[in-house]
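Progress note, sequence design subtask.
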């Protein structure tokens, strides 16, 4: 085992070998501002109480709004939502201009067409190095049929077709 520091690019590439689902997390600010970001760092924490977590880069322009919001919504994307995924992965422009969104708990925008949506009370934030780990208590959720959008080795994809034709 070498004592040499890890090469961050190689480390990131190695992490890319873990296929993840893709989410968009949205929140509403006190001033009516709507924020949303693409995140693949989503996980369940507990069934009782129902807790989830995700993480956000400390340099994100959306961090302050998300940290102060009473609620946020995690949208698990379907394989038909690659365009939304890419739009919310960019900083800057209003990401909601092309979407009709409902309003969820705490003013969090609700995006349609997702496999699942989790409306969460913003519970606690933990230091995670260059990220903030955000824990939410699920107060409401809904699900839909479909296949997931996946992120693997730096690219978006859907599920691979099964060889058995099922």
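Output:
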């Amino acid at each position: 085992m070498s004592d040499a520091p890890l090469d961050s690019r190689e480390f990131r590439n190695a992490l890319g070998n873990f296929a993840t689902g893709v989410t968009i997390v949205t929140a509403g600010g006190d001033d009516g501002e709507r924020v949303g970001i693409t995140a693949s760092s989503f996980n369940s924490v507990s069934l009782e109480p129902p807790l989830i977590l995700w993480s956000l880069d400390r340099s994100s322009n959306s961090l302050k709004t998300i940290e102060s919001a009473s609620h946020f919504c995690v949208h698990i994307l379907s394989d038909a939502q690659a365009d939304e995924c890419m739009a919310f992965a960019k900083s800057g422009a209003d990401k909601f201009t092309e979407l009709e969104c409902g309003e969820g708990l705490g003013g969090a925008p609700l995006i349609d067409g997702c496999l699942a949506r989790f409306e969460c009370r913003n519970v606690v934030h933990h230091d995670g190095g260059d990220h903030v780990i955000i824990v939410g208590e699920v107060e409401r959720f809904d699900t839909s049929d479909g296949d997931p959008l996946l992120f693997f080795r730096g690219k978006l994809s859907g599920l691979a077709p099964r060889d058995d034709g099922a």
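The radius of gyration is 17 Å. Work on this subtask will continue into the next period as scheduled.
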